[in-house]
Design goal:
The protein has about 500 residues and is an alpha/beta fold. It has 17 helices and 7 strands. The protein has a 7-stranded mixed beta sheet, sandwiched between helices. α2 packs parallel to α3 and α6 packs across α14. The termini are far apart. The C terminus is likely disordered.
């Protein structure tokens, strides 16, 4: 075997082993979740009951609900109306609409704010002269005039439940060491398409299993940017909202916990939200999350490792903040599968190498699916039908590897960046014409679909070669690779075509 072949095989094996480690961590999360789930839920209910036995309406603190908005013409009114419908004393609930919009959203917000203020709500539309700092800048700007001891945050695609504050604020009042209470995301439009159904299952895995395991065992966990309540003092103590990463929520969460604050997660409080219905919008959202996570890892992992935390906490923080590295690893494995077959055919020990790398890849592919399976089983009565979405979710995770790999590279070597919003259309079900506003808010696609389709073709050739060599065990994963890249590439092209601007028609005559 040539030196080049040795290097190639080593890279392939290392990438497979790294994927195995990230997959193994899913089993760790499951183990931690099962260990204390019954006791933790019982203790949470008891604390809430204790609060309402010992506190009345007059004891409730002032809460400021911040609604950061940028060009949300289709969902702005829905958000404001839901925030005003939260069951909380009007004189102790301040609503800030942090409106950086540059389109007709500004007028919509102004109209709704006037109506709600006339009805007795403490609500204000706050405008800035520029979008400096994007969402982090808007939150920090609003915080300067906020009167609340606690700060709730909702993005434009959410509908706050009426009892949200009554079920979250007590945990902050009862324990002065808690910096933030995060709630579970629900899904308004899960049944809209296979794309939204797959996203819902993936999000459930994070919230039902991972966030629970992290908060119950004292691991670093994150505010998810929305549907949570912060203690104002914790935000200030941690250094406030900062815009040097694209995930200001993750950044502030880690800084607060490094200062000694705790986080609380309430899985039984659900805030419904709208999932992206456009694959390019989803890829843009994932790109922002991936790039921002790596930026936070660069910024804060040195402080995490210098802290007095246990090796388990530090290791989990490393895996948590670098989770999006799985996408370049997926890309490496997909690209090297064909050359690896050629190189391994020259080795006498090729069977052992195939078994080892194959085992790594199978474990790394199955473990997240088991985590997602448990999230559905623990949450929904119809979980059996929901878990049928898992192959689509795995294919989707593979297919977005191209765009997320670019995000990881940008996160490793760049700072900041533009905060590209995820378009929301007010889509809840599959009614005809639900995507009629799609041409108003568009997301650029670039060359990613071309690369995805080329990888799909490459994957099909690799699949055929493995079949000719009778490497049957590798075929399911290779098929998922090809399917994932093909599906995401084709959907990207289709959705970009649907979102193209309408050509103006010339008047007759």
């Amino acid at each position: 075997m040539t030196p080049f072949g040795s290097v190639l095989l080593a890279v392939y094996a290392l990438a497979s082993f790294a994927l195995f480690l990230y997959g193994l961590n899913a089993y760790v999360m499951l183990g931690l979740y099962f260990r204390h789930r019954t006791a933790a839920r019982s203790a949470r209910r008891e604390r809430l009951d204790t609060f309402w036995r010992t506190h009345g309406e007059d004891d409730l603190p002032v809460v400021t609900t911040q609604l950061p908005i940028y060009n949300e013409r289709f969902v702005a009114e829905r958000l404001l109306s839901a925030a005003a419908s939260i069951d909380y004393p009007l004189d102790r609930h301040e609503i800030q609409v942090l409106d950086d919009s540059t389109d007709e959203t500004e007028a919509i917000v102004a109209r709704v704010v006037d109506r709600l203020r006339a009805a007795g709500h403490r609500i204000e539309q706050i405008r800035r002269t520029d979008r400096r700092g994007f969402k982090a800048g808007a939150l920090a700007h609003g915080l300067g005039s906020a009167s609340g001891e606690f700060i709730a945050v909702f993005d434009a695609d959410f509908i706050p439940p009426k009892d949200f504050l009554r079920r979250t604020v007590p945990f902050l009042v009862l324990d002065p060491t808690v910096a933030m209470v995060q709630t579970r995301w629900g899904h308004l439009n899960q049944s809209y398409s296979l794309l939204t159904a797959a996203q819902a299952v993936g999000i459930d895995g994070h919230f039902v299993v991972e966030q629970s395991a992290r908060t119950w065992h004292g691991l670093f966990m994150n505010f998810n940017g929305t549907a949570g309540v912060w203690r104002r003092a914790a935000i200030d103590d941690a250094g406030g909202w900062q815009a040097d990463t694209l995930t200001e929520d993750l950044d502030l969460s880690y800084r607060a916990q490094l200062r000694g604050w705790r986080m609380e997660y309430l899985g039984d409080v659900v805030a419904p939200s709208e999932l992206p219905v456009d694959i390019n919008g989803l890829k843009s959202q994932q790109h922002r999350w991936a790039k921002g996570s790596i930026q936070v890892a660069r910024k804060l992992l040195p402080q995490v490792f210098r802290s007095q935390r246990s090796w388990l906490v530090k290791t989990e923080a490393l895996l948590h903040l670098t989770h999006y590295l799985i996408h370049p690893l997926i890309l490496i494995v997909a690209l090297l599968a064909w050359p690896a077959l050629t190189v391994l055919s020259q080795l006498r020990a090729s069977e052992y190498v195939f078994y080892a790398t194959g085992a790594f890849l199978v474990i790394s592919a199955l473990s997240p699916s088991i985590l997602y399976f448990q999230s559905q089983r623990a949450t929904y009565p119809d979980w059996r039908s929901r878990v049928m979405i898992l192959p689509a979710l795995v294919a989707l995770g593979i297919g977005i590897a191209v765009s997320n790999t670019r995000a990881v590279v940008e996160g490793l070597f760049g700072r900041g960046g533009d905060f590209i919003r995820t378009p929301k259309y007010g889509v809840i079900d599959a009614r005809p014409g639900a995507l009629s506003p799609r041409r108003t808010y568009r997301v650029g696609v670039g060359l990613a679909p071309v690369l995805e389709l080329l990888l799909a073709a490459y994957g099909i050739v690799t699949l055929v070669l493995y079949a000719r060599e009778e490497r049957w065990a590798a075929l399911p994963l290779l098929a998922l690779n090809a399917l994932g890249f093909a599906a995401v590439g084709l959907l990207s092209v289709l959705h970009a075509w649907r979102a193209r601007p309408l050509r103006s028609r010339r008047p007759a005559g």
